Amino acid sequence: MSVHRKLDSSALARQSGVPEPELRGVLDGAAPSPSLLRQLAPALDLHAADVFVIAGAAVPDDLAPLDPEAGPWVPGVVRCAGRLTPEKRGELRHLVHSLPQEKPSQRPPQEPSFRRLEGTPPGTPGATLDRMLILRNLHWTGMAKTFLVLTGRYWAASTYGMVGAGRKELTPDLVADFGTVLDVPAGDLATLTGIALPEILQARRPATTGMAELIWDLRRLTADQVRHIGEVAASMGPA
Fold first, then answer.
1. Residues 34 and 96 reside in one and the same domain
2. pTM of the entire structure?
3. How many domains does the chain have?
4. Per residue in 49-90, pLDDT tens?
5. Where are the residues of the annotated region Disordered (predicted)?
6. SS3 state of residue 111
7. Burial of 182 (0-12, 13-18, 19+ CB in 10 A)
8. Which domain covers residue 33, as residue numbers?
9. Residue 206 neighbours by CB under 8 Å, 6+ apart
């Protein structure tokens, strides 16, 4: 990815604050430390959690979604927010940011879905893309609903499972759709997947402006809070 962005190890070391010898070791195949991955994230203009996923590393608990039970409510927020003007969408994000940090309701402990994908070989592009979406509290059914709203294309929920398991071939259309929901530049996705995207697939529809950021913002909320945001979004839209 640093090559795609025309960053050599010296430039990346300067921008990230990582000692160049340590960075060179990682680029040569050494396992990166968690602190190094966190430092690289701002320099690569990526979320730290995504950098862990791309590196095939275990995601620290503090970078995981707060409440897995909030996941089923996310597509509803996306659907309602997609009907709003960019200005109202901005107001909705402001509301999300203003909500206090709460603890999830007490429920039996459950292994997060993204943990179950950590055994997949890190070089599998489909597993990487799936894990990045799961870190946004989107699971297979949620992915299908969200992709439909943001891209206008419907892929069956099982398709995302097959992508993660390496049983579904990634196509330019599918990679472009992942990019829209993840808000990851097309060039970066081409590097991650080995699939170049035609320019026509790199253009973002106006209706998606701010949506990937909203999905990311919802990660820190509880299920009750996300449900509340969905109700507010519905009330802000056309009658």
1. no
2. 0.85
3. 2
4. 999 998 888 899 899 999 999 999 999 999 999 999 989 999
5. 96-126
6. coil
7. buried
8. 9-63
9. 86
